Amino acid sequence: MELFTCPLCAEPLSCTDRILSCPANHCFDLAREGYVNLLPSHHRGSLAPGDTSEMISARSRFLNSGHYEQLISALRSVLSGMQGPLVDLGCGEGYFTSLIAEVIPNVYGVDISRPAIKAASKRSKSINLAVASTARLPLTDKTFELATIIMAPSTNDLPRILKDGGRFIRVTPGPDHLTELKEVLYIGSRAHARASTDLPDFKLLKTERVTGSTELDADRIADLIAMTPMQFRTSRERQINAGQLGAQSFTLDFWIDVFEKNIEASVELPAPS
Ligand SMILES: C[S@@+](CC[C@H](N)C(=O)[O-])C[C@H]1O[C@@H](n2cnc3c(N)ncnc32)[C@H](O)[C@@H]1O
Ligand SMILES: [Zn+2]
């Protein structure tokens, strides 16, 4: 937990008797499950930001069924030989984070959703977990060798926490990802737009496209819809149609991009609270 910082004054936190405190004596209790909440109420955009507990349960059921096995083995080989500390930003319920923690020591996970971090703490005891926003990361400057963002929102605070020469691994959906489902859910479904690889402060080292297919039954299709914002962007009728698709093959398509932080990257400190 020693790489977390105080969300109120940005000073380092130290942990005694399950309480994290900074030199100015701002205190944050470790939850029973072992995570810490570093998202002060005035930094929250809403009462319960991020994914809801229903979305988190659906995500866990879906990911636990092993449909993203190909992505996992591609991620494992990208990570092989790399060193921590690593932080997984927007880590959700910790499925990928816990697999990463099996091959990389000293892993941190951050998500704005409390139900997500609670579920991640139950999944693995070896990850340092905090409820926090990636817009204002409560993490020490220039200490992380690696950061991952797996199908989660990006952040401008990344250059600050990475060491010079540190690496950022980003997983985003490829153009054909779940195209069969999108055709049923949306009128005039469009391919996922490619996220830019031209990032200020980073050099693109490597890009890999992981493609494949998987069989999904009605329950997993329902989970897939419930775990993403797809459910809010389509009608109930179209969701029912998707649920009646029956077992069929779905296209999987992901980009894995590996970036290296430029030595001369300009580091902007997050705005004070
Ligand atoms: C599509 S899920 C991906 C979760 C996980 N990386 C995975 O692949 O299983 C996106 C996650 O980003 C989180 N999230 C959204 N906005 C965030 C923010 N500003 N700061 C931290 N997490 C955020 C959500 O709560 C959600 O858990
Ligand atoms: Zn403080």
Give a written overview of the molecule:
This protein has 273 residues and is an alpha/beta fold. It has eight helices and eleven strands. It has helices at 53-64, 69-79, 95-103, 114-123, 158-161, 179-185, 218-226, 236-243; strands at residues 14-16, 19-21, 27-29, 36-37, 86-89, 107-111, 127-131, 144-150, 162-173, 202-216, 248-261. An eight-stranded mixed sheet has the order 4-7-6-5-8-9-11-10, with helices on both faces. A three-stranded antiparallel sheet has the order 1-2-3, with no helix packed on it. The radius of gyration is 19 Å and the shape is globular. The structure holds S-adenosylmethionine and zinc ion.
Concise summary:
By secondary structure, the protein is α/β, with parallel strands linked by helices. It has helices at 53-64, 69-79, 95-103, 114-123, 158-161, 179-185, 218-226, 236-243, and strands at 14-16, 19-21, 27-29, 36-37, 86-89, 107-111, 127-131, 144-150, 162-173, 202-216, 248-261. 26% of the residues lie in helices and 27% in strands.
**For the report, how would you describe the main beta sheet?**
8 strands, mixed
Structural class: alpha/beta
Task: Give the amount of beta strand, in percent.
Answer: 25-35%
CATH topology: Rossmann fold
Tell me the strand order in the biggest sheet. 4-7-6-5-8-9-11-10
Query: Which ions and ligands are bound to the chains?
Result: S-adenosylmethionine, zinc ion
Based on the structure given, which CATH architecture is correct? 3-Layer(aba) Sandwich
Compute the CA-based radius of gyration.
Answer: 19 Å
Low-confidence stretches: none
